[in-house]
């Protein structure tokens, strides 16, 4: 699946008491890039008709990030099945060293019924 990438710079509000990026911030970045990828690719009709909810999340922390580090986030879908998809997010520093990696299972929800919705071929094509 084709990846989506963005960058950010670590700010003081990203840091914990150890002066490196707080683990919770990585999870927020995972959610942020997933949402940005969805909003960039989906049409206004699809965005109106569907949204995603997180079912499960696994993150592996490799190396800390620090104030003013330039961070690259890369995300891509590794599979679709029924109403669910599995999304990978890789987070790198400017030396291209892997800082963290996550795998998240998401469920597509119909905005009207608030129930899981089978992922359509059209939605799959958006990310292939």
Automatic annotation (TrEMBL):
GO MF term (any one): fatty acyl-CoA hydrolase activity
EC number: 3.1.2.-
Entry keyword Hydrolase: yes
InterPro entries assigned: 4-hydroxybenzoyl-CoA_TE (IPR050563), Acyl-ACP_thioesterase_NHD (IPR002864), HotDog_dom_sf (IPR029069)
Enzyme class, first EC level, given as a word: hydrolase
Protein family per UniProt: Belongs to the 4-hydroxybenzoyl-CoA thioesterase family.
Name recorded for this polypeptide: Acyl-CoA thioesterase
Organism taxonomic ancestry: Bacteria, Pseudomonadati, Bacteroidota, Flavobacteriia, Flavobacteriales
């Amino acid at each position: 699946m084709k990846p989506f990438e963005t960058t950010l710079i670590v700010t003081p509000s990203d840091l914990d008491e150890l002066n490196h990026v707080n683990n919770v911030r990585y999870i927020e970045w995972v959610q942020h890039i997933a949402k940005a990828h969805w909003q960039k690719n989906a049409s206004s009709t699809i965005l109106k008709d569907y949204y995603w909810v997180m079912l499960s999340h696994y993150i592996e922390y490799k190396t800390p990030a620090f104030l003013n580090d330039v961070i690259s986030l890369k995300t891509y879908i590794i599979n679709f099945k029924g109403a669910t998809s599995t999304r990978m997010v890789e987070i790198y520093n400017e030396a291209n060293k892997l800082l963290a990696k996550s795998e998240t299972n998401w469920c597509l929800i119909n905005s009207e019924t608030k129930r899981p919705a089978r992922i359509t071929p059209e939605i799959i094509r958006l990310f292939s």
